[in-house]
Write a structure and sequence with these properties.
The chain is an alpha+beta fold and 294 residues long. Helix content is 15%, strand content 38%.
C-alpha cells in the first residue's frame, strides 16, 4: 500500500477580529476573488480552487486550520488507517465545508488543526484584474511548541522532505513537492503563525506589488533581499490583523531524487545540497524588522 502523501498546501483559514477589513485586504489589495460566503465565513480564491484563503469572524486572531491536498493514491479511510497505525487520531468529515465534500481532520504535535482531502471543487473564477494577484499560496511558517516532534510528524506521517535549516534547530524547512519549502517550522515554546507567503511572477511583479502596498498604506517591513535558505527574493508586510505576509520570487527547486536544489547562477556552491545556514539574507542586507522575532 502507498504511504500518505501530501503534495500541496491549498488554503489557510484565518480567525479574524476584523473580518470585513481582512476580506477587503484580500480582494482589493491581494486581488483574490470571493467564491462563497456562508454563515459569516468568506471563501476567497487565487483563481482556480474554490478557496485558498478563508476568513472566519472571531474574538481573537489566529489560524483556524490549514488545508492540504493528498495525492489520491489512498482513500481517506486508508489514510485514517495509516494515521491510526502511527498513533495519530483523526476524524472523517462529510460535507464539512464549502468546496470540499470529504476530508480528514487531525492535529499536528504543535496543536495546529489540519484538514486533508483528495478533491476540491475547482470554481475557476479566474485571476483577479486588480490588486497584487499572486501566482499561488506558496508556504506557511509557524512557531511550534514540540517543534522536533512536529517536524517528524510532517516528514514521517505526511510524506514531507526535510530541506534546509537556519541555525541549528531554529528554522526548519520542509517540502511536499519541488518547492524549496512548503512549511517552515520555527522552534518555540508556543504555537502561532510566523508568516504566510505568496509566489509572484517575476521581479517586475514584485516591484509593482511594493508600489501597490505603499498606496494602500501597507509599507514593506523587510526586503527586498535574497534569502539564504531557498534563495527566494522576498519582501514582507503586515495584513490588517498584523499577520506577516511574504511576497517572493525565485524560490529554489528541490530535486529529491538527487538530493540537491536545481542549479542557479547565484548558488555559492554546486551542487547545492540541504544545509544549515547561519543568516537570513544572502546579500548581507540589514533591516529594522528582525524576522526571527516577528
Amino acid at each position: 500500500m502507498s504511504n500518505v502523501k501530501i503534495f500541496r498546501l491549498v488554503y489557510l483559514d484565518f480567525f479574524a477580529k476584523n473580518s470585513e477589513t481582512m476580506v477587503e485586504y484580500y480582494t482589493n489589495t491581494m486581488g483574490y476573488r470571493i467564491t462563497e460566503e456562508k454563515d459569516g465565513v468568506t471563501y476567497l480564491s487565487n483563481g482556480f480552487d474554490h478557496h485558498n484563503i478563508v476568513v472566519t469572524p472571531a474574538e481573537e486572531k489566529a489560524v483556524r486550520r490549514y488545508g492540504y491536498q493528498l495525492d489520491g493514491n489512498l482513500t481517506l479511510e486508508e489514510v485514517q488507517e495509516q494515521l491510526h497505525a502511527k498513533g495519530i487520531a483523526s476524524s472523517l468529515k462529510i460535507d464539512a465545508k464549502p468546496g470540499v465534500s470529504r476530508l480528514v481532520e487531525l492535529q499536528d504535535p504543535a496543536g495546529n488543526v489540519i484538514e486533508l482531502f483528495t478533491e476540491m471543487k475547482q470554481s475557476a473564477v479566474g485571476f483577479g484584474s486588480s490588486g497584487i494577484v499572486p501566482l499561488k499560496l506558496g508556504h506557511v511558517a509557524f512557531y511550534a511548541k514540540n517543534f522536533q516532534e512536529t517536524i517528524e510528524f510532517y516528514r514521517d506521517a505526511l510524506g514531507f522532505s526535510f530541506t534546509d535549516q537556519i541555525g541549528v534547530g531554529f528554522a526548519n524547512f520542509l517540502t511536499c513537492n519541488t518547492d524549496h519549502h512548503v512549511l517552515n517550522v520555527v522552534a518555540s515554546d508556543e504555537t502561532r503563525l510566523h508568516h504566510i507567503a505568496f509566489q509572484l511572477k517575476d521581479a517586475s511583479h514584485q516591484y509593482a506589488s511594493s508600489d501597490l502596498l505603499a498606496k494602500h498604506g501597507r509599507p514593506t517591513l523587510w526586503g527586498p533581499s535574497r534569502h539564504t535558505a531557498g534563495h527566494n527574493i522576498a519582501t514582507y508586510h503586515h495584513d490588517p490583523e498584523e499577520n506577516v505576509v511574504e511576497l517572493y520570487i525565485d524560490m529554489d527547486v528541490f530535486i529529491p531524487e538527487l538530493g540537491i536544489f536545481e542549479p542557479r547562477p547565484w548558488h555559492e556552491v554546486l551542487p547545492l545540497k540541504p544545509k544549515v545556514w547561519e543568516a537570513l539574507s544572502a546579500w548581507g542586507t540589514e533591516f529594522e524588522l528582525d524576522l526571527a522575532k516577528v
